[in-house]
Design brief:
With about 375 residues, this protein is of the alpha+beta class. Helices cover about 45% and strands about 15% of the residues. The two termini are about 30 Å apart.
């Protein structure tokens, strides 16, 4: 068992560290408008991403992408997350990519949706969350009813990132509500301009992004727009869910390390009652906790990524990594804020934004309580 990154990934990590430190952090307060990166900075960073070899890192080589391993992607996500120069959600700087679902498309559907997406000609959103079905997809109420060679879809999706400028959506719906997430959910590709599809409310969140509500009223979708067989929606989803949890964990590593860097530097500089904060045991113990928990989280994330690359079943590992890393990074941001005191509450420093983002990640894309619930089931099954 090797706990060190391969040499090529150590080189990549060091290269990205220099890029972030020298080219992104110095301008990080001016590059975004909310959670949208400004066009001039997007162009600059995308050009550098190509030069650094991280362009379309998660797109298979057969489609012209980098085809990076999960572990390599984790390294990239970790390093880029040390700065707020790029959005935590939405558009990044590594180019168009697709969820694993879209790589299942064939023939006409591939030509119409996947390839234009990868060329940057179309944008997509993923629509699963509903007002009454967030972390529990099995209770979703949006339904698709077969009528000959079409499906009739009705329902409401909520908090859908990127819906405002998407050309099509990857829509998860119930085709058999009695079966729930165990064979009752299917995935469809639906054009955003299809009759019956309309955007509802736009929610402005504390993180700065603006997800949408999508209303579907008697939307007729050709049966050929269903991805896979009826009821296979969650099976397709599992193909990218574990990768998504690794991404969560890797992003948390970058945030936590930046918080340690800032907190340590400030503790050495700031003096109160005649002594630097760094000499206060209370502050030392916060820094020690941050460091210890970061080391543990990094091992969990890297191990999960490595197991996925080896084709192993790593579902529980992904749950553990996502839960532990997200909780760890929020705690690190909170302690960094505490050490800085009042200045951390201003927008002069990136701490408040990291704090807000990390707080949200304990809820979105799988709440911490849901992660623990699934982990508990595994424990009861394994150790009973």
């Amino acid at each position: 068992m090797d706990f060190e990154l391969p040499e090529e990934l150590r080189i990549l990590k060091a290269t990205l560290r220099r890029f972030v430190d020298n080219e992104m952090i110095p301008i990080e307060r001016e590059t975004t408008d909310g959670e949208q990166i400004k066009p001039q900075y997007l162009e600059r960073f995308e050009r550098r991403a190509k030069e650094l070899g991280i362009w379309q890192l998660d797109v298979p080589t057969e489609y012209g992408g980098g085809g990076m391993s999960t572990l390599a992607r984790a390294v990239v996500w970790e390093e880029l997350s040390r700065t707020i120069a790029i959005p935590a959600r939405g558009e990044g700087i590594t180019g168009p990519s697709a969820r694993g679902i879209l790589y299942s498309l064939q023939g006409e559907m591939k030509e119409k949706y996947l390839l234009p997406l990868l060329r940057g000609e179309k944008k997509a959103c993923f629509a699963q969350t509903e007002p009454d079905a967030g972390s529990d997809p099995g209770s979703m109420r949006t339904t698709a009813v077969r009528e000959g060679d079409h499906y009739l879809i009705n329902g409401v999706k909520r908090f859908i990132t990127g819906a405002g400028n998407a050309d099509f959506m990857q829509l998860m719906v119930a085709t058999d509500r009695a079966k729930g997430s165990r064979g009752g959910i299917s995935c469809f590709i639906v054009d955003m301009d299809a009759p019956g599809v309309k955007l509802g409310a736009c929610y402005e969140t504390m993180m700065g992004d603006k997800p949408w509500e999508i209303v579907l009223e008697n939307v007729r979708v050709p049966a050929r727009h269903r991805v896979g067989a009826e009821g296979e929606g969650m099976r397709f989803g599992q193909q990218w869910l574990n990768i998504g949890r690794v991404k969560h964990g890797a992003r948390a590593l970058g945030v936590a390390e930046r918080c340690i860097e800032m907190a340590t530097s400030y503790a050495k500089q700031r003096s109160t009652f005649g002594s630097p904060l760094a000499e206060r045991q209370a502050v030392q113990w916060m820094l020690a906790d941050m460091f210890i928990e970061l080391q543990a989280a990094r091992l969990l994330v890297y191990r999960t990524a490595a197991r996925l690359d080896q084709g192993e079943e790593a579902r529980e590992d992904a749950y553990v990594a996502k839960y532990y890393a997200d909780e760890m990074a929020f705690k690190a941001a909170d302690q960094c804020m505490q050490i800085h005191g009042g200045i951390a509450l201003t927008t002069d420093l990136p701490i408040e934004k990291m704090w807000r983002q990390q707080r949200s990640y304990r809820i979105t894309e799988g709440a911490s309580e849901v992660m623990k619930m699934v982990i508990a089931r595994h424990v009861l099954k394994t150790y009973g």
